[in-house]
Amino acid sequence: MSNATPQSKPDRLTVTAISAKDGVSTIERWQLASPFKTSSQAGVSGVSFAQLGQAGNTSYAVIPPHFEGGLHNAPAVQYVAFLAGEAIVTTPETGQSVTIKGGRDGLILVADTADVSSKGHDTRYPNGEETVALQIPIAGGKIPEHIVLDEEFGMNDDSS
After folding, report:
1. Which of 108, 98, 160 is nearest to 134 (CA)?
2. Is 131 exposed, middle or buried (0-12, 13-18, 19+ CB in 10 A)?
3. Which end of the chain offers a freer environment for a tag, N or C, measured as fewer CB atoms within 10 Å?
4. Is it the case that residue 53 has pLDDT exceeding 70?
5. Gyration radius of the chain over CA positions
6. Cα 74 from Cα 52, distance rounded (Å)
7. In what order do the strands lie in the sheet with 96-101?
8. Residue 36: what are its φ and ψ, rounded to 5°?
9. Dmax (CA) of the chain
């Protein structure tokens, strides 16, 4: 017998977003506008899912332990799904930082491309193990509709 409390189905997907305002990269929490739906597809009937949109050329990255990604812009508007390991993303101009752990909560949206952010963000991988990530560019580079839940995410210790 389990002591787990049943969780209610989420209404909409919430993600950490690395975005930009006035040419400066920022870290925010976004709630995507597209609601969760219930699948009727065989094998996953009754399962909640969120449509993330059309994807571009998706890649699977294996990042070595203690890797320093350095200061950079997102190469494209893209989702990054960390499957294992850990990444720390900072935006030096705003002082924001967020730790992303691989697994269930490892999905982020990165949109601080060079055309909207002058310096970008810094990413480092502090663990002594490989970090594995899927990089999923959004076709057409269109940022999904969303509402901003927290514009100062990563300013305090509540971001990990």
Report:
1. 108
2. buried
3. N
4. yes
5. 16
6. 18
7. 68-72, 121-124, 86-91, 96-101
8. -65, 145
9. 54
Coil, helix or strand at residue 61: strand
CA 127 to chain centre: 19
> Helix or strand or coil: residue 124?
strand
Residue in the structure block whose two tokens are 């030096």:
92
Contact 97, 154 (CB under 8 A): yes
The amino acid sitting at 4 is: A
Half-sphere exposure of 74 (CA within 13 A, CB side): 30
Q: How far is CA 59 from CA 77, 128, 136, in A?
A: 14, 23, 7
Separation of alpha carbons 127 and 136, rounded Å: 23
At 10, the amino acid letter reads P
Q: What is the pTM of this model?
A: 0.88
Residue with tokens 């070595």: 64
Give the integer Cα–Cα distance in Å for 29 and 25. Answer: 13
pLDDT band at 79 (very low <50, low <70, confident <90, very high): very high
The pLDDT of 52-70, averaged and rounded, is 96
Tell me how far apart the alpha carbons of residues 33 and 27 are, in angstroms, rounded to a whole number. Answer: 18
